[in-house]
Each structure stands twice: as C-alpha cells, then as structure tokens.
Amino acid sequence: MSIALSLAILAASLAALMGMIALVRKLGQRFGWSAEVQRKSVHVAIGIYALALPLLFDARWPVVVLLLVALGLMLFLRTPASRAAGLGAAIHSVERKSAGDIWLALAIGFVFLHAGSSYILYALPIAVIALSDAAAALTGSSYGRRRFAVEDGVKSWEGVIAFFAVTWILAMVMLLLLTDVPRPNVVVLGVTIAAFGAVVEAVSWRGLDNLFVPVCVHFFLAGYLGASPTVLIGLAAIFFASMLAIALLTPRLGLSVHASRAFVIAIFFFIGVGGLYGTVLPLLVIAAHLVARRRRPCRSPHGDLDFIATLCATGLIWYFVGESVGPTAINLYNLGLAGVLLGYLLIAAQCEWRWTMPAFAIVLGLYLALVAVGPAYARWVIWLPWIAAGSLALVAVALLARRGWTERWRAPRLAALASVVPMTAYLAQAVTR
C-alpha cells in the first residue's frame, strides 16, 4: 500500500470518528439517551472499527499515527468546553473519574503491535472489550440489583454475568471461524476466557477495564490457544482456588475484597506474560508493599489499587519497549522492579539509615543472582552490576533525603524513580547497537 493511500485512509478514519461522535451526540439529544448509553455507543463503534485495522493497513506506522492522533482528540474532548456542550459530552458526561477512552486507545495499539500476523490474537480481545463490556455496563445500569463495591463506585453481578455470556459466545464463534482449534477445546477455551475476562472486568476501576481486559485476554489467548482441555481446566481450578485463598486471607492482610481480587489477577497476569522467571520480583514487590502498608500506610485514598495499576503498567511499558525497540529488556525491567522492591523495604523500615545498607546489599545480590540464572546477555555482563548499584543507590538516596515524598502516590513515584537509570541504560544501548 502506498504512503498516499495510507494517509488518505487515515484522514477518512479520523473524519469518520468525529462524525460518529457527533451523530451519537445528536441522536442522544433527540431520543433522550442517557449519558451511559451515549458513551457505550461510541465505545462499541470505536471497537468495531478497530477490528478492521489489520485489514485496512499492511504496515504498522499508519495505525500508530492514527492512535496517536486519536489520543490527542480524546484529550481535546476532555476540555471543559467540549465536555459541557461539544462532542466531548457524548463520552464524558458520566460524572466519574475515568480515563477509559485513553486506556482503550492504548490497549488497541498494544494488542495490535503485539499480535503480529495472528488476527485472532488481536480480534478477540478487541471484540470482547467492545461488545462484552458494553453489554455488562448497560445490563448493570438497567437491571443491576445485586451490587458490589469497586473503589469509589459499584458494579453489579448481573453485569458480570452479561459480560461472561457475551464473551463466551464471541470466543466460540471467533475461535471456530478464525482458528483450527478442535471443537471440544473451543468450548472449554471459550468458557475459560469468558470467566477470566469477567473477573478482570469486575475488579477493574477508573475505566482500566478498557486496558486490562483486552491485554489480559490477549496474553491468555497467546499462551493457551493450543492448550488441551485438561490444562485449561487445571488452570481455571488454580485461578479460582487462588481467589478463594486470598479471600480467606483478606482480613489478616488488611485488604479490601476488591483489592484482594485485583492482586490475584495481577499475579496471573505476570505469570502469563513473563513466566515463572518474570514473576519472582513482582511477587517480592507485592510482599514488600503489603509489609510497608502496615508499617507506614500511604495517605492516598486507594493505595492498594494504585499499586496494582502501577505494577501492571510498568510491566506493560517495559514489555512494549522491549518488543518495539529490539533488544530484550528483561534484565533492565527486573532492575527497575528491584529498585521498587528496595524502596518498599526502606519505607517498611521507616527509612532509617541503619537498615539502608543491609537492604541495599540484599536487593542487589538478589538481582544479580536472578541475572546469573536467567537469560543474561554478554553485552551487559561487565557493566550491569555497576548500573544496578547506581540505580539502587539513586532510589535509596532519594528516599532518605525526602522521607515524606512517598506519603502520597507512593507506587507511581517509586516506579518512576526506579526506572530512570534502567530505562536510560536500555535506550542508550539500543541506540548504540
């Protein structure tokens, strides 16, 4: 496809997006649609269009450009003037803190880039978030009676059931049409995807289901598309047993029910993306967070959920960078997590000087041990210990110099601080390759 044709399709796509939002806004005003119906109508339309992206473009760059422009448009629609009476009223008139439109665009881009030539790995996750999520929201808002709390809002079990049913149907239909998976496997795989996706959607907050659901379904499908029914049933049993175990431990850990479920989802997410090797440090960071929150609580209203979102987002950012730039990022990603681990250990120790060197030595030794037994690469064997020491030293010095810096927004601040040196080192070695 020529560049001129790609640009023409890009322009037509953006014009169609603006026209669709304007049409939904006009129909909503004329027929008295609720804000939720207008928002979900736009959501479904964007999702359905996104399904055609691999068919419209034969290269990645037009999709990346389209999504970047769409993100800019979404930010414009959040301006006060647009939210009050402009096109933004069609998707932002629901009074709640949500960045669902931003997360949806990022999810489409991530899944598109990572799916490669496998259409099912892209299409099914996008179809689920476009159709199942809308069915859950509209069912819950219209018929929801049995409700449960999520952060500062509520969801309904009727909505969860609707999400499960629509996802199961979508999964079976698309697996039958787009893959050669045996029919018995299709049924079991469809049920497992629907159950897993429904739980992820149920524990998501602030519109993060638009990111978590497609990404989690994508990685689950990529890992288990060819799995036997026995493996899938065993996986489902482990998952729900973990949900039950964490529910029983919730009172002792001081977690909310919502946060406890989100922790299980996060753990399975890391297992699915990074395997056992890539899950060691996330598990240790989770444990350190649970200790730190008891010894020195964070003043953010939803510290546990902010922690989970930050941990998962950090993993996705590193995964995306590693896949896009070229050289594997696993060692430097783990270094970033090691810095977060050190940060939580120091916070749990009240940032006292006497605990700094022991914690520094333990985390540095643990990190270097993981490098030694994992996929270490010769290019980094000589310099990696020094880079690791410098990165961890930066975290320690920053926390000791400003002890109250992590009282609010603890997880995002620690993750940003711990990623400065690893990300700089990674991008530097990528440029000099």
From TrEMBL:
Q: Which GO molecular function entries does the Swiss-Prot or TrEMBL record give?
A: ATP-dependent diacylglycerol kinase activity
Asked whether the keyword Membrane is assigned, the reply is yes
Protein keywords: Membrane, Transmembrane, Transmembrane helix
Has the keyword Ubl conjugation been applied to this entry? no
Domain of life, per UniProt, equals: Bacteria
Mind telling me which InterPro entries this protein's record contains? Dgk1-like
Under the heading PANTHER family, the entry gives: CTP-DEPENDENT DIACYLGLYCEROL KINASE 1
Name it.
Answer: Phosphatidate cytidylyltransferase
Organism of origin is: Sphingomonas gei
State the organism's lineage: Bacteria, Pseudomonadati, Pseudomonadota, Alphaproteobacteria, Sphingomonadales
